[in-house]
Amino acid sequence: MTTTPTERSIAFAAVFNFRDLGGLTTADGRTVRRRTVYRSDTLSRLGAEDRDTFAALGIRTVIDLRRPAEVASMGRVPEWTQVVWRHNHLEHPTWDHSTYTTEIGVSRWLAERYLELAHHGRADIARVVGMLTDDDHGPTVVHCVAGKDRTGLIVALALDLLGVPDDQIAADYALTERSAPRFSQWVRTAFPDQNHVATPPFFTYTPAEAMLMTLHGLRYRHGSVTEYLVGAGLQRDRVERLRERLLEA
User: Fold this and answer.
1) Rounded to 5 degrees, what are φ and ψ at 82?
2) Contact 160, 215 (CB under 8 A)
3) At a CB cut-off of 8 Å and minimum separation 6, what does 225 contact?
4) pLDDT digits 0-9 by tens, 70-113
5) Rounded to two decimals, what is the model's pTM?
6) In whole angstroms, how far apart are CA 21 and each of 8, 216, 247?
7) Is the pLDDT of residue 1 over 70?
8) Are strands 140-143 and 61-64 parallel, antiparallel or unpaired?
9) CA distances, 145 to each of 31, 96, 238 (Å)
10) DSSP labels for 92-127?
């Protein structure tokens, strides 16, 4: 069983990378439960025209991975959503864009950044994955700024714990690239003075290979994603609780 991207994507006026993790399948043939965990770019852009669509999802909790300065400048999810806002910044160095070269390429450069994030933000990442195991939090959406890097890593690790194969995890990550044209158009309209600024390729491209390299790198260093997270403080029983919550019987 497979699902198409459009079956999982949800359209909003100015939120461009919102989709349900439900519908993906595990290596043993089980299906990730729908309408339970979503991934997104920043939700501060939700507007009044999005009220009905958002309300229909029944979301009760928003996990915001952005830096405090990003929250301060962009704002939080609107109060009218009536969600519980849980801010959990993932500690990591600011990206040094000067280290990117065409010889390294987007896939490897992003994988190196994600492994760097996995190292520095290990405890924060384990905490967020633990949040996804709790039924009391209700339907949950995880987001950062673009829903690409920090969100992409959290989602990839959670899907690995569920037993979703690497090719599906990487394919879900790669879907973010489809949102880039709409987001870029919005930026050109909202910030016309930035139209002359060139966008680095690693801002908009999400090659599946980048996530595959990240998962392989984590396993090389830690043995498995489970051991990586348990070593950072995630209790082992939480892995089974995640599977109970997010997998269809």
Assistant:
1) 60, 35
2) yes
3) 157, 160, 161, 215, 218, 219
4) 999 999 999 999 999 999 999 999 999 999 999 999 999 999 99
5) 0.94
6) 7, 22, 11
7) no
8) parallel
9) 28, 18, 27
10) -PPP-GGG--TTTHHHHHHHHHHHHHHHHTHHHHHH
